[in-house]
Amino acid sequence: MGFILDGLEAEAYDRTYSDTALIRRIVGYFRPHGRKMISVALLVSAASLVETLIPFGVARGIDMLAGNPAAQLVLALAGVVTILGSLGWLFNFLRQKLAAEAVGDVVLQLREDAFNAVMQRDLSFYDQFPSGTIVSRVTSDTQDFSNIVTLTMELIGQALLVLLISVALVVVQPTLGLLTIMTAPIVVLVAFAFRRIARWSSQQARRAVAKVNSTIQETVSGIAVAKSFRQEAAVYEAFTATNELAYRVSVRRGLVFDTIFPLLDMIAGIAMAAVVYFGGARVIDGTLSAGEWYLFVQGLMLFYFPLTSIASFWSQFQQGLASSERVFALIDAEPRVVQRAHEAVPQLRGALTFEGLDFTYRPEADGAPATAASWVLRGFNLNVPAGQRLAVVGHTGAGKSSLARLITRFYEFQGGRLLVDGRDLRDLDLGQYRRQIGMVPQVPFLFTGTVADNIRYGRPEASDEAVTAAAARIGGGEWVADLPQSLQSEVGERGVRLSLGQRQLVALARVMLQDPRIFILDEATASVDPFTEEQIQTGLDAVMAGRTSIVIAHRLSTVRSADRIIVMRQGQIIEEGSHETLLAQGGHYAELYTTYFRHQSLEYIESVGTFGE
Q1: Higher-confidence residue: 554 or 324?
Q2: What is the CATH number of domain 352-436+516-612?
Q3: What share of the chain is helix, strand, coil (3-state, %, to 5)?
């Protein structure tokens, strides 16, 4: 069994809830729809009562026909059955309609709660868990949650029907009625025996579906890379392996659920055969009428079918509980970024101070405390005055991007303090604080829509004139003329219809419209043509003017124009000063300049020459 379940381990934030806790929480979602659910319960009762009356009416008619066979009596009996059947259909229709509305409302609310939880999770959560599995919980698992409610409604109706039939059978013929009822505990006990394995198999099935979703999403997102390296076959093999895993888990789950029904039907069949035999014997010896015997035969069918449904309900119910457990685990996941207070944030000056700050991306890797090698920053100190343009340089892994992520409060630091205008960042209202921060990542992300929609993203209420003005301040607005439909050009998914340089210009215009007090830029390393390079630099100058700017610099022009440069290595500042001062020191910055920035500068000069030709 182990090889079947490889790769289907629970996520780190998963937790185990008792059935009672889950049911109590599910009931909480239905509490606002109490009136509708009461109406459903009444309709279920009415439908069950009608279903019970039909065999009684037919049995009574049979006995009356045995003594007085008349056509009028047959017609009357047919009319009564038709009326009762129509009422039963009407009650069931109304019950299903109201139940569907209530279930739809609850699933809508649950999905909104799950999606809100996704929005509240900090970035470390997405670093650790694949987005496809998270999507599966918000979509597939919330839908499966509705099965609990549907099954519960069926359970109420079936249980009431069993109760009414049991009373009727005991009243008509106590001995046979008690014999019938005595078989019920056997059916229920057999069903309960499947309860635990049904819950476990359902959990594995949901994890398998989530893994398939994750694989598909990752493949679609990286399809360009796969094609460029001609790895379609390898990607297909990886998906096939995941799909086969899901298939094996699904087959095992199917065997579990498909085993219980035949077993329950077999027990019910044996019990029914025994009762039919003893009932027939009583008809022969005259102690039971033909109508009563018919009532027992029909009653047995009405008794055992809902009884087996009730018994199998517990196994099916586990599937819904397994799905709800996964959704509630996502909603209840503990955040790592926790604010101590939510103090109002007025207009910021933009002064930043790191005081003895310790940071690691995995504070408790695999349950153990962070090791010395895992610390990204240790006792880090840095003061950035308001309005300063700070360039951060260093080799990969030096901790440059971590500074940006901590300033935006995307990650939690483990020690020290980070002050903004002298106030601890952990005490500020994050929503108000982040509205005064503008950030352009190394690969700007654009949402499906127009260029104007993406510029307006940070300020949805901004007018078309404000959007046009913001675009015009980036590179003089000349880049807008190169777009096929100006600012109304569609960017495509993730901005694929624009070049990387154009995406950077859109992202800069978005920040310009936002008008933040702190600007953070992680410059892209990809080369762009000299004209776009100039537009980007002009746009950067416009955005950084009068703002505190933290730039993880990859362009020589950005480094040279910075008020101050810090050089980082292994989470520590090893040099700082101006471009000329650091070059004169002949240290690590001079080495970086020689091996990277100087080479970049020569390439730029050569490209300008070629461009000029």
Answers
A1: 324
A2: 3.40.50.300
A3: 70, 10, 25
CA angle centred on 87, ends 85 and 90, rounded to 5°: 110
What residue spans in the chain does CATH classification 3.40.50.300 cover? 352-436+516-612
Alpha-carbon gap, residue 603 to 527, rounded angstroms: 10
CA distances from 231 to 218, 226, 234, 429, 470 (A): 14, 5, 5, 46, 42
Distances (CA, A) of 201 to 1, 71, 538: 12, 57, 60
Q: Of the candidates 187, 408, 452, which has an alpha carbon nearest to the alpha carbon of residue 314? A: 187
- Half-sphere exposure for 397 (CA within 13 Å, toward CB): 4
Q: DSSP per residue over 215-235, as a string?
A: HHHHHHHTHHHHHHTT-HHHH
Contact, 187 vs 162, CB < 8 A? no
State the Cα–Cα distance between residues 366 and 582, nearest whole angstrom. 42
3-state secondary structure of 212: helix
Six-digit token pair at 611?
Answer: 């461009």
With contact defined as beta carbons under 8 Å apart, do 207 and 253 qualify? Answer: no
Note whether 52 and 165 are within 8 A (CB).
yes
E-assigned strands of 428-569? 437-440, 518-522, 548-552, 564-569
Bigger pLDDT: 175 vs 515: 515
Q: What is the mean pLDDT of residues 77-95?
A: 84
At 48 the three-state DSSP class reads: helix
CATH classification of 3-332 is 1.20.1560.10, yes or no?
yes
Contacts of 306 (CB under 8 A, 6+ apart): 157, 158, 159, 161, 162
Whether the model clears a pTM of 0.70, i.e. scores above it, the answer is no
Question: What is the mean predicted confidence (pLDDT) over 370-399?
Answer: 86
Residues forming beta bridges with residue 418, ordered by sequence position = 354
Mean per-residue pLDDT of the chain: 78
Name the residue with tokens 């087996």.
Answer: 308
pLDDT digits (tens, 9 = 90+) for 570-601: 889 999 999 889 888 988 888 888 776 655 55
Least confident of 286-295, 382-391, 423-432, 467-476: 286-295
Q: What is the pLDDT of residues 505-550, one digit of tens each?
A: 888 888 888 888 999 988 765 556 667 777 777 888 888 888 999 9
CA angle 446-448-452, nearest 5°? 70
Sheet hosting strand 389-393, strand order edge to edge: 437-440, 518-522, 548-552, 389-393, 564-569, 572-577
What are the distances in angstroms from CA 94 to CA 149, 406, 584? 16, 56, 85
Question: 577: helix, coil or strand?
Answer: strand
3-class state of residue 378 by DSSP: strand
DSSP-derived 3-state class of residue 336: coil
The distance of Cα 208 from the centroid of its chain, to the nearest Å, equals 15
Instruction: Give the tokens for residue 370.
Output: 């962070």
| 190 closest CA partner among 31, 311, 348 | 311
Q: Are 310 and 159 in contact (CB under 8 A)?
A: yes
Q: Which of the residue ranges 333-342, 365-374, 491-500 has the most confident prediction, judged by mean pLDDT?
A: 333-342
User: Residues of CATH 1.20.1560.10 domain(s) within the chain?
Assistant: 3-332
Q: What is the dihedral of CA 173, 175, 176, 181, to 10 degrees?
A: 110
pLDDT confidence band for 421 (50 / 70 / 90)? very high
